[in-house]
Design goal:
Layout lengths: L4 E6 L10 E6 L12 E6 L2 E7 L14 H10 L4 E10 L9 E3 L2 E5 L24 H13 L4 E3 L2 E5 L7 H9 L4 E3 L2 H10 L4 E9 L12 H24 L27 H6 L5 H4 L1
Parallel strand pairs: 1-4, 1-5, 5-11, 6-8, 7-9, 9-10
Antiparallel strand pairs: 2-3, 3-4, 5-10, 6-11
Helix pairs in contact: 2-5
Length: 288
């Protein structure tokens, strides 16, 4: 066995993964509520893979209503070791044209009102988000996407907006002035929660549009996004297959696997038993 169990969180345009052997949909219960959907789990080569449609089958859940805590918790309960997120994004830079892929390495979180941590009163933790993605998994995703025929930009900053509305032109220009490269609605708090669950995380953004900063052309709309989604989907599925088939034979440990060792701050005698019970999957190793 390789030790790899890759969790795939599929966003707009990636609603399934082909080639999974012995796959089945499994329902996983979480103390954090209901996840977006059941999880399709099976094997591809030496690796185990579990696929979760972020918005649910049929794209029924709005970005603002995603239960990211339950999604990450359920993947952890299934034994996932690493998470590859695939999302549709808008471009804030001319060179990142629709149809290209961006494997980002930084985030700016502009979401609001979304539960963004597993921890709180009774069990406080502060994980580092200085480097929010896993470089190992990100490099594997870059190679897999290029092998699928995609033009890939490696690195870049993802602006996570609240939505579900698209940006105003003023916001789009502001985010460009901050040096952001792509914009989306789902990576936060997903990436933060993955880190709190000690899951190495990488995100591939599939560019569908130029947001609305280009004054000379019409603003983005759903019809435009859907048209580009169809063009991106085939390469996205091929990318996932390539990544799973080309994983190193053995999964070497990652520093992210044990990041809670330096994050938990609440003294053992002051910890809330009810919260600890909810943390059994995401933090069980560290709080045992």
């Amino acid at each position: 066995m390789s030790g790899w169990h890759i969790g795939i969180i599929g966003g707009s345009g990636l609603y399934d993964v082909e080639g999974i052997e012995g796959g089945e949909w499994v329902s996983v219960a979480s103390p954090w509520g209901a996840p977006s959907d059941a999880i399709f789990t099976g094997r591809m080569g030496a690796a185990r893979v579990s696929f979760l449609p972020r918005h649910g089958r049929g794209h029924r859940i709005s970005p603002s209503e995603l239960n990211s805590r339950a999604n990450i918790d359920c993947l952890k309960r299934l034994g996932v070791t690493d998470v590859l997120a695939v999302s549709s994004v808008g471009s804030l830079q001319e060179m990142r044209a629709p149809g290209t892929f961006s494997v980002v390495d930084q985030f700016i979180d502009r979401t609001k009102g979304r539960p963004s941590s597993f921890y709180g009163t009774g069990m406080v933790a502060h994980v580092s988000m200085a480097d929010p993605v896993c470089p190992r998994l990100s490099h594997l995703a870059v190679d897999a996407a290029r092998a699928a025929g995609a033009e890939v930009h490696e690195g870049g900053t993802y602006l996570a907006m609240e939505g579900p509305q698209f940006s105003t032109r003023a916001e789009s220009h502001l985010y460009r002035s901050w040096g952001c490269h792509v914009i989306g609605m789902t990576a936060m708090p997903e990436a933060k929660l993955a880190r709190e669950a000690e899951l190495p995380y990488a995100l591939v953004g599939m560019v569908t549009d130029y947001d609305c900063w280009r004054e000379e052309e019409a603003a983005v709309d759903v019809a435009q996004v859907i048209a580009q989604l169809s063009a991106n989907a085939e390469k996205a599925r091929a990318m996932v297959v390539n990544l799973l088939r080309d994983l190193p034979e053995v999964r070497e440990p990652s520093p992210i696997d044990t990041c809670l060792d330096t994050a938990l701050i609440t003294a053992p005698h002051a910890r809330d038993p009810e919260l600890l019970a909810k943390l059994d999957a995401v933090a069980g190793r560290a709080i045992a």
